[in-house]
Amino acid sequence: MTARKYRLGVARKTVNVLVAACLRRGVPIAGSTGWLLTTRGRRTGADRTTPVNVVEVGGERWLVSPYGQVGWVHNIRADATARLWRGATRETWEVEEADAATAGPVLRAYVRKLPVTAPFFDAKPGDPAEAFAAEADRHPVFRLARSRA
User: Under a CB-based contact definition with an 8 Å cutoff, are residues 56 and 65 in contact?
Assistant: First the structure.
């Protein structure tokens, strides 16, 4: 069975608006590690904000794009700065994109923590990290490297 392809339809847009509204107010979403990520648009230079989940693996924090090469991924590759916020909490990080071997365990941990994303992966939650590393090119992973507080 092949992984589902992500499409930002009306339902997902509605969910994103509701989640973002909660996160702006600092209200946690059950089972989520949600933050609002603001990046600088690679073409316009305008700020772009989207809800994301940050996972902790191996004592480090990671941004994962379970839905692939989405807008924030392109923006963060152009300007390796992640501005994360939730309520009154604000953090600014320099990020580094992980190679496939490093991304594998992070992707596996992400799918286990947020099983709603599992249909977008060919690897299953119980598979070894190598199975996730094999599809790391379709699910970019970024380490929150240095705080720029």
Answer: no
For residue 76, being part of any structural domain is answered with: yes
User: Tens place of pLDDT for every residue, the chain, 149 residues?
Assistant: 566 665 656 666 666 677 777 777 777 775 567 899 999 999 999 999 999 999 999 999 999 999 999 999 999 999 999 999 999 999 999 999 999 999 999 999 999 999 989 999 999 999 999 999 999 999 999 999 988 75
> Does residue 53 lie within any of the structural domains?
yes
Residue 43: exposure state from Cβ atoms within 10 A (0-12, 13-18, ≥19): exposed
Instruction: State how far the Cα of 20 lies from the Cα of 27, in Å rounded to an integer.
Output: 10
Give the DSSP letter of residue 119.
G
Query: Is residue 2 situated within a structural domain?
Result: no
CB 23 within 8 A of CB 29: yes
**Can you give the residue range of the structural domain that contains 71?**
10-147
Q: Are 93 and 82 in contact (CB under 8 A)?
A: yes
**Among 88, 79, 92, CA closest to 46:** 79
Residue 3 inside a domain? The answer is no
pTM across the whole model: 0.84
